[in-house]
Task: inverse folding
């Protein structure tokens, strides 16, 4: 019961507080005192429902006489949890899924007349008709992506890549860790993790990275407190490597740095030399960067509160490289933040203007001959190529420069790369490298 109740708490909180499921889940797991097994089940149920809400409504509608969307929100949440266990999980006894859901309805829907009876009837019918329910045909129902988002992604990635991306968005991402080569080696860390019972294998195309499974809490793994590794998706690490940072005495600015992964990647690429200024507008996030740098032993990182859109005269023309991983719509990280798919597309229309303003400001800090790296974790033309084209039209002293990529990728000549989930097993990501003439 504890796992299902925790999952329900998170779903209700997501709806009422308009928060992200990943952060709310962490809070509830931390305060709930669940053992490892229940925590894993709560996580699976929570993400499973958020990722498959459209599909679950598609099935639910076949089991109701009225409209699924007219149900009381808490009743609908409980039915989603029950249906997910019955229809999309294979190790949960159907009787347990029904009985526990009815218990939740009795506890959390007391003011809704007949709620527990409705939950009982619908879920028992789902058990009986599990193999006979109509299958979804549209991407909207099958992969639980709103039509407006499907259309937006299709216009960017194309028809051939679209379905593989939607499938990847509903899968649990691998845990990728970057080995801190200033403190240990990949082989030594891999051995320590395997001796602790975690599966660890070298990343297939990015050196210095391990892919983990069966880990439980990352913070409790050997080597974490000693700063031997940090968690970062391969796409984000690749973007920093594409900057081609110099090792000798370079000065680098990471203007939207929190929680610090790109600054840490830069520190390793620079072998602990030079200076990295890591900025964020929020003090508590700057503190996260500072603590991470201290744990990892990167004393060449200086964490600082600063607004990326505000000019700092002291930095003008001083940086060998500027990393501008700007705020974006986040449509490339749906597999990690599944709620993003339900964003109103119209709410992101103002982002390209902000992104261009940040990029123009950051460009002023790049010295002649220096590098400006622009990146996002989204997949829209307006926020990616569109911003770059607008920037270059206004800043003719910058030029695109081809990206140095691992052999698995086609040779790059454009200076721009879009990583699409389902292709290289990464987050969705856009990378652009420009050099000041």
Result:
């Amino acid at each position: 019961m504890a796992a299902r109740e925790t999952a329900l708490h998170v779903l209700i909180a997501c709806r009422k507080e308009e928060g992200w499921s990943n952060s709310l889940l962490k809070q509830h797991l931390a305060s709930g005192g669940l053992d490892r097994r229940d925590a894993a089940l709560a996580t699976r149920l929570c993400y499973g429902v958020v990722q498959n809400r459209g599909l679950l409504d598609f099935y639910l509608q076949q089991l109701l006489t009225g409209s699924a969307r007219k149900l009381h929100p808490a009743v609908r949440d409980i039915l989603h949890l029950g249906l997910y266990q019955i229809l999309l999980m294979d190790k949960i006894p159907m009787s347990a899924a029904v009985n526990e859901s009815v218990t939740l309805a009795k506890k959390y829907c007391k003011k809704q007349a007949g709620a527990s009876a409705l939950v009982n009837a619908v879920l028992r019918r789902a058990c009986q008709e599990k193999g006979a329910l109509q299958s979804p045909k549209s991407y909207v129902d099958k992969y639980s992506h709103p039509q407006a988002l499907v259309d937006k992604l299709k216009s960017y990635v194309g028809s051939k890549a679209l379905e593989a991306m939607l499938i990847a968005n509903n899968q649990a991402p691998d845990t990728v860790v970057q080995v801190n080569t200033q403190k240990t080696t990949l082989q030594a860390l891999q051995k320590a993790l395997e001796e602790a019972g975690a599966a660890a294998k070298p990343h297939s195309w990015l050196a210095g990275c391990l892919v983990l499974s069966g880990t439980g809490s990352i913070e409790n793994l050997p080597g974490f407190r000693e700063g031997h590794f940090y968690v970062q998706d391969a796409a984000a690490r690749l973007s920093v490597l594409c900057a081609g940072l110099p090792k000798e005495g370079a000065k680098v600015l990471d203007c939207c740095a929190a929680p610090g992964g790109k600054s840490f990647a830069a520190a390793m690429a620079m072998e602990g030399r030079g200076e990295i200024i890591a900025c964020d507008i929020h003090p508590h996030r700057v503190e996260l960067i500072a603590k991470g740098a201290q744990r990892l032993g990167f004393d060449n990182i200086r964490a600082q509160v600063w607004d990326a859109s505000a000019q700092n005269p002291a930095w003008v023309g001083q940086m060998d490289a500027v990393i501008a991983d700007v705020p974006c719509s986040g449509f490339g990280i749906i597999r990690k933040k599944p709620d993003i798919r339900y964003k109103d597309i119209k709410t992101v229309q103002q982002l390209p203007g902000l992104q261009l303003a940040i990029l123009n400001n950051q460009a002023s800090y790049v010295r002649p001959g220096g590098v400006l790296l622009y990146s996002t974790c989204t997949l829209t033309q307006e926020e990616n190529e569109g911003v770059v084209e607008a920037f270059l039209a206004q800043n003719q002293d910058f030029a695109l420069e081809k990206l140095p990529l691992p052999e698995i990728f086609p040779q790059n000549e454009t200076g721009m790369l879009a990583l699409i989930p389902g292709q290289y097993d990464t987050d969705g990501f856009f990378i652009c490298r420009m050099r000041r003439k």
Remarks:
- Residues 235-436 form a domain with the Rossmann fold fold (CATH 3.40.50.150).
